[in-house]
Design a protein that fits this description.
By secondary structure, the protein is of the alpha+beta class. It has 5 helices and 5 strands. The chain has a single domain, classed as PAS domain (Beta-Lactamase, 2-Layer Sandwich). The protein is globular, with a radius of gyration of 15 Å.
Length: 119
């Protein structure tokens, strides 16, 4: 392994840890709207363990009527920004502003959403 490979591994590890512990909600979902990765803040604010949240679909958290259509539009255009209402495990809700778009991991398409809680 060359020094560039080691630097990439270090950067990837640091970036992953920083994002997991960062001040924004991060969600990674597949084309079927299943969560495949989430960060710690998303779990905490939604009241789910990571394992529980990874067993859910986007529409289990984004329960508003237009959510499936908005997700399909994001896939079609490969990006979307907006606001949404998320539903916690206990049924309470909160609003977010988000930016979402297509990314690739392990050679497959996924959809990442970065969000912040609105006051």
């Amino acid at each position: 392994m060359g020094s560039g490979d080691a630097e990439t591994l270090i950067q990837t590890g640091l970036l992953g840890e920083a994002l997991d512990n960062g001040p924004v909600l991060l969600f990674l979902a597949d084309e079927d709207m299943r969560y495949v990765a989430v960060n710690a803040l998303a779990c905490d604010l939604l009241g789910y363990t990571r394992r529980e949240l990874l067993g859910l679909h986007v529409t289990d958290v984004c329960r508003f009527e237009e959510a499936p259509q908005e997700y399909d539009e994001m896939i079609g255009s490969r990006a979307r920004e907006g606001e949404a209402t998320l539903t916690r495990k206990d049924g309470t809700e909160f609003r977010i502003a988000y930016s979402a778009g297509e990314t690739r991991a392990a050679g497959m398409p996924f959809y990442i959403s970065v969000a912040r809680v609105l006051a």
